[in-house]
Each structure stands twice: as structure tokens, then as C-alpha cells.
Amino acid sequence: MEETYKDRTSLVKGAKDIVKEVKRQAVKKVNKAVDKAQDGYTQRSYNRFQDEEDDDDYYVQGGNYGVEVNDDEGSSEATEGHDEDDEIYEGEYQGIPSMGQGKDGMVALGQPMHDEYKDRHELETERKADEEELAQQYELIIQECGHGRFQWALFFVLGMALMADGVEVFVVGFVLPSAETDMCIPNSGSGWLGSIVYLGMMVGAFFWGGLADKVGRRQSLLICMSVNGFFAFLSSFVQGYGFFLFCRLFSGFGIGGAVPTVFSYFSEVLAREKRGEHLSWLCMFWMIGGIYASAMAWAIIPHYGWSFSMGSAYQFHSWRVFVIVCALPCVSSVVALTFMPESPRFLLEVGKHDEAWMILKQIHDTNMRARGQPEKVFTVNRIKTPKQIDELIEIESDTGTWYRRCFVRIRTELYGIWLTFMRCFNYPVKDNTIKLTAVWFTLSFGYYGLSVWFPDVIKHLQSDEYASRVKHFRNEEVSHFVFNFTLENQIHSNGEYINDRFIMMKFKSVTFEDSLFKNCVFEDITSLNTYFRNCTFMNTTFYNTDLEQYKFVDSELINCTFFHIRTGCQISFDDDYSAYWIYFVNFLGTLAVLPGNIVSALLMDRIGRLTMLGGSMVLSGISCFFLWFGTSESMMIGMLCLYNGLTISAWNSLDVITVELYPTDRRATGFGFLNALCKAAAVLGNLIFGSLVGITKAIPILLASTVLVCGGLVGLRLPDTRTQVLM
Prior knowledge:
This protein is an alpha/beta fold. The protein has helices at 2-37, 43-61, 120-145, 149-182, 192-215, 217-235, 241-255, 258-267, 272-300, 318-326, 328-337, 344-349, 353-370, 402-423, 430-468, 577-591, 593-607, 609-623, 633-661, 667-690, 698-715, and strands at residues 308-310, 314-316, 471-474, 477-479, 482-483, 487-493, 496-498, 501-513, 516-518, 521-528, 531-533, 536-538, 541-545, 552-553, 556-558, 561-563.
């Protein structure tokens, strides 16, 4: 009995020795695979290896001592099905971790330390090192993919979105006079439309830019352009001014995300030597949007025949048709974006290796087929992905209501956007953010301020000339006469009109003062800027006219009758020279930036971004002094074209510098913040420069010149990014 017990003890001891040898051999092979993969074995392999250890212990404890163990099977399931030459994608889906992983706080032999055992500083240090390695590798990959059909297709798709942004800016100025007249807006509320659109664009730029760093460039751009298109279409049909302001506010909120997202998106599929030039070419679509808006305004708004009405309550005038036409670039960009992939650089940044690899392969294959080299193979097998630092939150999925969960999700996303924004003020991008803030603010303040001041000065010169040609008629006595022609730019004082008929007439800027109308008939009358001040009407009939009560200022109506009065303000552009002139001036001012766009695109990578930025802003500031000699409309238009042509190079270089100075995880957020600051500076410039129209030229000239020159000098202090890869 004792001998049997000894034999059994020796058998158990031998089995344990065999199991230990199996473990030792398995660890050696695992370490060999780790060394070959360079970045450590995948989590799945370690999970399976750890499970194998647990299984071995189970066999020993269960008394299966008689099982014969072969050394050749010591590789375990961790390496089964894997060849030593196989590449392992970092970021590849690793499956659900096993329950035994990390048991009792132990780390399996051959495994790196789990992230839960590291503090946040260590994780951020590892992520920073990974990002630096990714930046260098990604540049090489983009160069291998080449520049071809894919980039050009994306160029035109994103160009349509940028064109929609340019259209939105010009739409405000073009529809403002018509919309205010059509909706009978008093002068006290006339400035709200322009300001509220810029307010929406300011908030939208910050929000959509931050969202692009959270959910992706393509996704964010699709949503913001859809919001813009929907509310732009809706605004063309609403009748009330309050609802119209609401629609244009959200339309501006949507389009505000176009600029930061478009430039971040396109820069991430361009190689270093192509980036400056092609981002500058992309800027031309903003100019094309301005030309498109000017041409459509000139072709549609002044033509009264482009309108219809349904009774007196619903009026659909030509400016509403213009608003619909201006939404077409936005709709086109949304449709085209559905066929484009996400930015692969963003996907790598958030750890989606396989999706990014497939898109990069698509870019490579598309360009190679276009070159006639379809047999060329995409040689990249593994791309470095930065270590992901998860921010876990708890949402009441079981007990909370759906709107509670939505509220928590929205709050979490907004908080994430805010945290990303605050990181724009951390080292090493803090100094760059402060300098870019100064440059963006000064350039926007000077450019938009003078851009508003120029047209206002031209309109002021036109109004002075128009007022100088007014005709005065005093002490008229007209009886039994039929007026059936147009009266324009006239003032009639102390007149008497007895038994007269005013039939099928148009009154344009006509004022009757201290006059008497007795036994008269007004029939089929259309009036614009026409008023009766301190007049007396006796036994007078009004039929199918737009002469409402507010046009009779301190007047007395005795025994008068009104039939079929047309309510609402009436718009008429027939023979309206000033309307055509304003659109033509904006068209010339927008077209003048074409030479500057071409020059900046060709020289951006040759002379450098900083030289282009500083030189353009300084020259723009100097050109402001030529405004002293602008005493006529033609001279002011020439100065406007010169100014726009010089400043466009600064805008293009500033866009390129901004996307290159920020790392991928906060590129769109930083750009969105600066673009929001741009809109705030534009509103401030509009208020300050607009208040000085007709008062003095000295203050606008000195103010614009000073801020532009100072901003250009600050821009020269920015780091040169011409030879850098995208961080």
C-alpha cells in the first residue's frame, strides 16, 4: 500500500514537472512573437495564453495525471493559426476580454502592463509618442497613395461646401433691402438680419468645428450643411420677419461649420509638398460663391416678374426665388458628400485602424487606376495608432427616460468639445493660439469693416446725387386732370387737386406736403417711399392701391372710401438703376480677388506662408491710404477691387497656417474657434465702420490701416510650417 502511494506521488510530481516545462516553452514562443511584432503581442493572444494556463492548472488539480503531454503541443492556442510572418494590425478588433484576464491583479508573463495600472500622465506620454510616430508614417503613406483622381474629386465636393459659405455671406447683403421692404420692417429693426446671421455663423463655427474632432470631419460636415440647406429653403417661404430671422439664424449656424471642417478634412489627404498650393486653390470656391451670388442677385432680384402672390396675405417676390437658388450649392455638397469617405487621419487618431487602412487603400487604388497603373499594390500593412485614453461616463440606460439619456449625451458631447477647446491653450500650441487669435481678429476686423464701409460710402454718394436732383413744385392748382404716368423724386407743397384722377400710376420717392385733394380718385396705384404729410382728403376714393394708413402722416381724411387696399410693402425694381449698380459693384469686388488667389496658390509653397501672410496684410494696410482720393463712385470701386485683391492672399495663407499648426485631435476645434472669432470681429467692424459713413474718412482709414499692419507683424512671428508634416 505504501509503495502504491509512493508511485502515485511520483506520478503527480512528474506530471507537474511536465506542465511547468510546457509553460516555459509556451512563454518562450510568445516572447519570440512579441519581439517579431515589435509593438507587443495582441491582447487576444495574451487572453488565450492566460486561459491555457488556467486550463493546465485545472487538469492538474482534477487528477488527470495519466494524460500524456507532448512538447510539440506546448505552443498553446495563443499561437495556433498564426504564422510567424503574419503582420498584426494595431488597433485591430481583439474580441471581448476573458473573465480570467487580470485575475487577482496579476499580470500574465510576457504581457505589457495593462492601461488600468498606469496613471493618466503615463498614458498621455505614450499617446504623444505614438502621435509623433504616426505623423511621420502617415506622410509617407500619403506620398505612396499619390495625388490624383481621389483628391480632385474631394476638392470639388468640399469646394461646393465652401462655395455655400461664400454665398451665405453675400445673400445677407443682397436680400436685406428687399426683405425689409417686403416685410415692412422699420428702420429700428433693419440691422438685425445682418447681425443675426453672423451670430449664427459664429456659434456654428465653434460647435461644428469641435464636433468634427469628436465624430469625424465627414459626419460633422454632412450634418451642418443639411441644417443650412433646410433652413435656407424654409426662410424663402416664411412671411413674418421674426420667423424669417429665426430661419436665417439657424441657416448661419449650419454654414458656420463649413470653413473649419472643409480645410481640416482636405488637408488630411494631401502630402506636404501639395498642401499649401491645393488648399489655396480650394479657397477660390469662396470667391466663386460670391460671384455666383452677385450674378444671381443681378439676374433675379430686380425682375419683378419672378414673383407671384396668393391673395394679399402671401407674397412670393423675386428675392425669395434668389434665396432658393443660393441654397443649391449647399444641397449639391450634401449629395456629393454621401459618396466620400471619412478622413483616414481622423480614423487613425481615434484608433480605427482597419477602417483607415481601407480608405487609404481606396485612395491609392483610385489614383493608380487613373494613372494607368492598376497593378500597383498598396504596400502598407500596419499603421501606428495612438494609444486611446477613454473617458467613461455612466448613462442611466435602465432607469432613465429617453429624453434624460439624450440630455446626458448632449451634455457630455458639449463638455468634450469644451475640453478639446481648452487643450488649444495648453503647451505646445498655446503661443500659436494666442498669435493666431490676434491675426484672425485684426484681419477680420479690417477686412469686413471696410467691406461694409465701401458699399455704404458708394450708396451714400448715390443718395446725395439723387437728392440733389429732386424737383420741387409749390402752390400747384390742378383740376379735372388725369394723372397716368410715373412721378419720381419730387416734392409737392401747398398744392390743390380738385376732381383729379390718379390712374395706373407709380409714385417713387414722392412727398406731398400741406396739400388738398378734393373729389379725387386713386386707382391702381403703386408707391415706393411715398408719403402725404399734413394733407387733407375730402370725398376721395381709393381703389386697388397700396396707400396704407402709415403713408398718411398727420393728414385728415374726410368722407373717404377705400376698396381692395393691398396690404404689405410693395417691391418694384423696374428701371431701378441703383439695384443693378449695387450687384455689379459686389460682382467686381469679388472678381478682383481672382488674381490674388492665383498668385497665392502658385507662390504659397515657394515663398512660404508667413511671407505671404505678413506681406499681404501690410500691403493691404498701406493701400487704405489711397481712400483719401476716393471722391467719386468709380474711384471708390477701384479702391475696393485693389483692397480685395491684396487681402485675399492673407486669407489663403492664414487658412493654410491654421490647419498646419494644430494637431489632428484639435485641428477642427482650433480652426472653429478662430473662425468664430472672425465672425465676432466682422460684426464689431460692421458696427464701428458703418457708424462712420458720411461723417469722416480719417477714422476708418487710420483704424483699418493700423489693425492690418499690426496683425501682419504678429503673423510674421508664427512658426514656419512649410516643411512640417501634419502633427
